[in-house]
Amino acid sequence: MNEIKIFSPATVANVACGFDVLGFCLDNVGDDMVIRKVDKKGIKITHIEGFDLPYEAEQNVAGVSALAMYEALDIDFGFEIEIYKNIKPGSGIGSSAASAVGSVFGMNELLGRPFNKTQLTEFAIKGEALASKCEHADNLAPAMFGGFTLVKGIKPLQILEIPSPDDLFATIIHPQIEIKTSESRAVLPKEVSLSDAISQWSNVGSLIHALHTSDYDLIKDSLHDVIIEPHRSKLIPHYQEVKNSMLNAGALGACISGSGPSIFSLCKGEETAKKVAEAIKNVYNSTGIDFDIHVSKINTKGVKIL
Questions:
Q1: Domain-by-domain residue ranges, the chain?
Q2: What angle do CA 247, 208, 130 make, to 5 degrees?
């Protein structure tokens, strides 16, 4: 096999209380990529559709990830990458992570899987760092593994897969504005109070337990962010109005997806998730800001071959 087409999914990072460690994978939105083996050594990006991204591998998230993996190989051939970008950069649903994961996953498949998924994520971190100016894997891990994941540590990289209820759905609104991850990090406090820290790690622990036990009431009680949301929400137009409409429509909880501007909610059942979608559509229709809405089951597989 010399060519492969893959789907690399969008993801939601942080999941309210789990800044830089928690994430989950979406089912019906993501990037398509084609990876092929070629005689010429090196990594070359030959085609990009959807958004204006650099063709130079050293300046492209997919390219940097691929180069990190390529440098760990002893091979006398190279790879070409085509990117069909469906996730808008700066959307808050893991655009850069999808590119990074897709490139290394596709290369690994063509090579007969010499690396495991954790090793692939380590290569992808190099690309993600290009976009966000720091190394983190809260989007990369769910894109690679699927489902809910917790990043226990970066050095060494430890990724824990978390089971979740079968009837858990996400509703996401993506206002068509851009907030770069590096910019959204600049508004965060350097220190937090002990009381806020206690509240936050209590919510993380209870959310993990709730996902394991399919305790929807506890999921609802745990989806709170007292540290990041108060600062980043100011960057997102109509944030509180959207969040309130999600909760009033029956969502278990709602918060900023990643660095924003997307806002996610978790819901019990597809019917409730669709009600939430209608509620937030009514809010944003009058704002003059274009938007997309996604209703998605939790994707338990992650990146895959098409």
A1: 3-162, 168-297
A2: 85
**Successive 10-residue mean pLDDT values, the chain, 306 residues:** 96 96 96 97 96 94 97 95 94 94 98 98 94 86 98 96 97 88 81 96 98 98 97 93 97 95 97 97 90 96 97
**How much is the pLDDT for 219?**
98
Instruction: Give the count of alpha carbons within 13 A of 297, CB side only.
Output: 8
Nearest to 138 by CA among 225, 262, 61, 23: 23
pLDDT of residue 111: 97
Closest C-alpha to 45, from 6, 85, 83, 95: 83
Q: Which residues contact 90 (CB under 8 A, 6 or more apart)?
A: 178, 179, 180, 181
Query: Catalytic pick from 128, 149, 229, 272?
Result: 128
| Pick from 65, 76, 73: nearest CA to 103 | 65
Round to the nearest angstrom and report the end-to-end CA distance of the chain: 14
168-297: CATH topology is Alpha-Beta Plaits (3.30.70)
pLDDT at residue 153 in the model? 95
Selected catalytic residue, list 11, 149, 181, 272: 181
Cβ of 22: how many Cβ atoms within 10 Å?
24
pLDDT score for 280: 95
pLDDT value of position 243: 97
Asked if CATH classification 3.40.50.720 holds for the domain at 3-162, the reply, yes or no, is: no
Tell me the two tokens of residue 145.
């593994």
DSSP 84-111: E--SPTTSSS-HHHHHHHHHHHHHHHHT
Active site residue 229: no
Q: Is 181 a catalytic site residue? A: yes
pLDDT of the residue at 12: 98
Q: For the sheet with 253-256, list strands across it.
A: 253-256, 263-268, 168-175, 291-297
Q: What is the pLDDT of residue 90?
A: 84
